[in-house]
Write a structure and sequence with these properties.
Helices cover about 60% and strands about 0% of the residues. It is mainly alpha-helical and about 100 residues long.
């Protein structure tokens, strides 16, 4: 009762334990990332995503950035895995939602 009177938080031990276990499990699923993490995109990945957002194909992106199509495909594959996206458009949406400014 004193804790409530002094406006202190009251948390039963079982609840605290369950909460800590839940947070720890979330950290294991996404190592090195916070609860609302922002993917660490390289400058090159940001350039690629901006061109993907414009609707360019791998071939067009490769020509624009003077890369091989294989390299572009590799970069995009890694970006999709990094943001856990199934498609290019889903990746663009996820990256925008994280606060990156990537154009249209």
């Amino acid at each position: 009762m004193r804790s409530v009177f002094h406006r202190e938080a009251v948390c039963p031990p079982q609840l605290c334990h369950a909460l800590f276990r839940f947070v720890a499990q979330g950290a294991k699923k996404a190592p090195g990332q916070g609860l609302a993490s922002r993917p660490e995109l390289t400058l090159r990945q940001q350039q690629l995503v901006a061109l993907v957002a414009k609707g360019q194909t791998n071939k067009e992106i490769a020509a624009h950035l003077n890369l091989s199509e294989f390299t572009v495909r590799n970069h995009i594959h890694r970006i999709l895995k990094q943001v856990d996206a199934e498609s290019r458009s889903e990746a663009v949406e996820a990256i925008r939602a994280c606060g990156y400014s990537i154009g249209p």
